[in-house]
Amino acid sequence: MICDTPPQGLRITGLCDSGVSAPGTGHIRPPMRAPAAENMGSGGSRAPCLRSVCADHRGGINWLSVSPDGRRVLTCSEDGTARVWRTSGPRCCALLQGHEDYVTHGQLEDDAAYTCSADHTVRCWDVDTGLCTHVFRGHTSRVNRLLVAGGYVFSGSYDRTARCWSPESSWQLQEFRGHRNSVLVLAHFTGRAMLPSFESDSEEDRDFLVTGSTDCTIKLWLVSDGRCCCTLRGHKGPVLCMVLDVPRRALFTGSRDHTVRCWDLATGDQMCILQAHQGAVICLQLVNRHLYSGSTDHTAKCWLVASGECVRTFKAHRHTVSTLQYHEGILFTGSGDSCARAFDATTGVLKKVFKGHKFIINSLQVCDYMLCTASHDCTMRVWDVCGLYGRDRVGSGQSPHKGAFGFLRAGKNRVGCAESPSRSTTAHDVEDGDNQEEVLELFRCAHLATIHE
C-alpha cells in the first residue's frame, strides 16, 4: 500500500466519473529542476535531469505509448480521456474525448491512436484532428488490453473473450471464446515459421493470437477462423504478462503463482519453469538471450533464456516493480513506491533514482536517451538520461523528427508482445467472485495506487 495521500479528486479505485475530462488545451508545467535523487554511479558527462512535467490529465495515467516514428506520445487516463503529445515541445496536440469510463490501455501508430476502456469499447482516433474515426463495439465488460498487429486490432476483456477487428471498418472479424475467466494479455505472431507442424490447407503464413487469462491458462488461436489450436496448462495462478521469443519459437509467461514459464509453441510443451520470485510476476521483457521480469516481491530479475538460470536480482525497490524496460545496457524500472530507477544491467548496480512522482509509476518508455514515466498522480514526466550512458546529446546530426523529448525512433511498440531481440496462489480456476476481483485489481497494478499482495 502506498502511504501518500491521494490528491483531491483522485479515485484510487480506478473508476472515474463519466464526463470528467481535462482542459481542452495542453498545459504543461515549465521545465523545472530535477528533485533530489540518489546517484549511485558516475553519471557520465551530464547528470540525468527532469526536463518536463505534463500535467493536463485529471486522473491517473494508466499507460503511455510512443509512435513508431517517434513524433508523438499517447497517454491513457482514469479521467476517461487520452491525450496525444508532440515530442517537439513537448505539448498536447490532441485531446481524445468520447469514452464513457476510464481508459485502460492504448497503442499509438504513426497516423492513428487506438484506446480501450472500461466502457466496453475500443476506439480509433485521428491523431491530427483528435476525432474518433471508429468505435469497436461487441464486448460486454471492461476491455483491458488491445494490440494492433498483422493488419488487425485485437482486444481482450473481462467478458472472458478476445476479439479481432478490422481497423478500416471497425467490423468484428472474429471472436475467441473458450477461457473461463478474464482475458488479460495478448500477443500475435505469424504461422509456419513458428508452427511448422500446424495442419493447414494453405501454404501461406497464418496469423495466430495468444491469450493469457485469470483461468491460469494460455490459448493459441488461429485468427482466420477463431479456432483454438492449443491450450497451455501449468500455471497455478492467473497469467499476468507474456512475451514471445520468435527465433526460438518460444513463449514466456508470468503469473501470480510467482513463476515464469517457457513454452514450446511448436508442440505446446512446457520447457522450463523459472522460479526465484517470491511474488506475482507483473512484467516481462526479452532482450537477446536475457529475460527481465518485475514482481510484487519488490525486485526485478534477469534470467538466461538458454538455461532458465536467474543470474541477477535488481533490488532497492520499496514496492511492486510495475513496469520495466531495457535500453543499451541499462534496465529502467517503475515501482509502486513512486520512483523510477536505472540499473546497470550487467552488474545490477543502481545508477539513479528518479524521484518526483507521488504515486505508482504505471508505464515508462525510453529511447534516444530520454525517459518518459507515467504515474497514477496524473502526470507524465520526461527525464534526460543521457548522462547515464557517459555521453552528451548528439548536436548537429539530429533527425528533423526529434524534438524536446529527444525521441529519434521508438522502435517496436507492440502492446503485450515483444520479439527477440528487442512486461503464492492455489491451483484453482479463480471462479470465486471476491478472489476474481482481487486478481483483476492485482493485474491493474499499473492503473491503481494499491496492490493486493
Topology of helices and strands:
Blueprint (H helix, E strand, L loop, with lengths): L27 E2 L19 E6 L6 E6 L5 E6 L4 E5 L4 E6 L6 E6 L3 E6 L4 E5 L5 E5 L6 E7 L2 E6 L3 E5 L6 E6 L5 E8 L16 E7 L4 E5 L4 E6 L6 E7 L4 E6 L3 E6 L5 E6 L5 E7 L2 E6 L4 E5 L5 E5 L6 E7 L2 E6 L4 E5 L5 E5 L6 E7 L2 E6 L4 E5 L48 H11 L10
Antiparallel strand pairs: 1-2, 2-33, 3-4, 4-5, 5-6, 7-8, 8-9, 9-10, 11-12, 12-13, 13-14, 15-16, 16-17, 17-18, 19-20, 20-21, 21-22, 23-24, 24-25, 25-26, 27-28, 28-29, 29-30, 31-32, 32-33
Name of the CATH first level: Mainly Beta
CATH architecture group name: 7 Propeller
Percent of residues in beta strands? 35-45%
Identify the overall geometry.
globular
Q: What's the gyration radius in Å?
A: 20 Å
Sheet with most strands = 5 strands, antiparallel
* DSSP, total strands: 33
- How many individual domains? 1
Percent of residues in helices: under 10%
Give the full name of the CATH homologous superfamily: YVTN repeat-like/Quinoprotein amine dehydrogenase
**Would you give the CATH topology?**
Methylamine Dehydrogenase, Chain H
Structural class: mainly beta
Given as residue ranges, the uncertain stretches (5+ residues, pLDDT < 50) are 1-45, 393-441, 445-453
The side-by-side strand order for the widest beta sheet comes to 1-2-33-32-31
The average pLDDT score comes to 80
